[in-house]
């Protein structure tokens, strides 16, 4: 059953020199209890997509959508107050850098109990007991002492665990994790991913994982959306994206991550060039300036979405029956 369904979302920002078209007509859904990864380079529109859905962008952002339905409710019709009530109680967010998301002036207890008191009307003692339970759930040792501490007294890994505890405090139906492991070292990254996986399995919460790193989502997402130039260029199950990718950009992403069973001498292949300037996005396929398979049609027309299976779809002119047959080079 669909928990979140987004249809034809467009987000742009008017700035002094023009309009940045950050998200361009994307549609996707997330099922109940499902974990979906949104992957792409910086500037591909992945974070802006979810901030648009949450209504968390500044006033100068222009957001339009045919519909954004969450748990049967049309989010585009909700007042700012109703949207705020939804944040934290039904949708939790985990940001990349907990140091800038946690308030340095308040203790862990105060930040962890606040959503419980606001959204769940808990009394102080009840909220404190739940806060302790949450810290144990996210495997923070000595939780009584941690409650009294301020964010700067905690390590990066502990701060991110506190962020996760805050995000899941009110038992949300969906958690959006925006690059939750990028600011952490590799061993802590693995622990945080294990923790998110465990939470998903024990609470049946849907998770949207936003990342630039396909390796991060390999272990926890069942479905993946690949974003480029404000559009979804390929989407499919993790198996389809990792074992049968069809879009040249997805090939590039896969070729640029190390393989555990690969040749130690093998060099990673970077994607040459830079992402498009979204002030003036290319007329046709946004990946055309960097694509080695680019054809004249690619520069003129946006590729249509080709559906390959119930779960797999790709937007690339190579899917046209008359296009040259090319395969991923590894
Ligand atoms: Fe490359 Fe053309 Fe496909 Fe775009 S549409 S990814 S330019 S082949």
* Average pLDDT for all residues: 91
Small molecules (ligands, ions, cofactors) in the structure:
iron/sulfur cluster
Helix proportion of residues, in percent? 25-40%
Q: Could you tell me how far the N terminus lies from the C terminus, measured between alpha carbons in angstroms?
A: 37 Å
Quick recap of the structure?
The protein is α/β, with parallel strands linked by helices and 330 residues long. Helix content is 32%, strand content 23%.
Descriptive notes:
There is one protein chain. The chain is an alpha/beta fold and 330 residues long. The chain has twelve helices and 13 strands. The strands form two sheets. The chain has an eight-stranded mixed beta sheet with strand order 7-8-9-3-10-11-13-12, sandwiched between helices. Strands 1, 2, 4, 5 and 6 form a five-stranded antiparallel beta sheet that branches. Strand 1 and strand 2 form a beta hairpin. The longest helix is centred in the middle third of the chain and has 18 residues, at 186-203. The radius of gyration is 21 Å and the shape is globular. The relative contact order is 0.14. The model has no long low-confidence stretch (mean pLDDT 91). The chain binds iron/sulfur cluster. Iron/sulfur cluster is lined by residues 247-248, 285, 287-288, 291, 293-295, 298, 303, 316-318.
């Amino acid at each position: 059953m669909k928990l979140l369904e987004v249809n034809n979302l467009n987000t742009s920002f008017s700035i002094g020199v023009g309009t940045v078209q950050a998200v361009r007509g994307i549609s996707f859904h997330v099922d109940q209890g499902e974990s979906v990864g949104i992957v792409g380079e910086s500037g591909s529109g992945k974070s802006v997509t979810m901030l648009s859905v949450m209504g968390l962008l500044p006033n100068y952002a222009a957001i339009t959508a045919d519909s954004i339905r969450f748990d049967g409710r049309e989010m585009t019709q909700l007042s700012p107050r109703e949207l705020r009530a939804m944040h934290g109680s039904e949708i939790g967010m985990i940001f990349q850098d907990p140091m800038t998301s946690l308030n340095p002036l308040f203790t862990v207890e105060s930040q962890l109990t606040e959503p419980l008191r606001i959204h769940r009307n808990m009394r102080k003692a009840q909220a404190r007991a739940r806060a302790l339970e949450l810290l144990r759930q996210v495997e923070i040792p000595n939780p009584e002492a941690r409650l009294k501490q301020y964010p700067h007294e905690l390590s990066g890994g502990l701060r991110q665990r506190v962020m996760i505890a805050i995000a899941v405090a009110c038992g949300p139906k969906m958690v959006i994790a925006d690059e939750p492991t990028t600011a952490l070292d590799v061993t802590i990254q693995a622990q945080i991913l294990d923790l998110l996986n465990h939470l998903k399995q024990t609470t049946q919460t849907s998770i949207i994982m936003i990342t630039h790193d396909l390796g991060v989502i390999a272990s926890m997402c069942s479905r993946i959306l690949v974003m480029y130039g404000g559009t979804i260029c390929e989407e499919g199950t993790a198996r389809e994206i990792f074992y049968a990718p069809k879009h040249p950009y997805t090939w590039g992403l896969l070729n640029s991550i190390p393989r555990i069973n690969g040749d130690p001498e093998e060099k990673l292949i970077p994607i040459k060039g830079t992402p498009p300037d979204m002030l003036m996005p290319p007329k046709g396929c946004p990946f055309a300036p960097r694509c080695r398979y680019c054809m004249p049609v690619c520069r003129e027309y946006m590729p249509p979405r080709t559906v390959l299976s119930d779960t797999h779809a790709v937007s690339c002119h190579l899917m046209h029956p008359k296009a040259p047959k090319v395969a991923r080079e590894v």
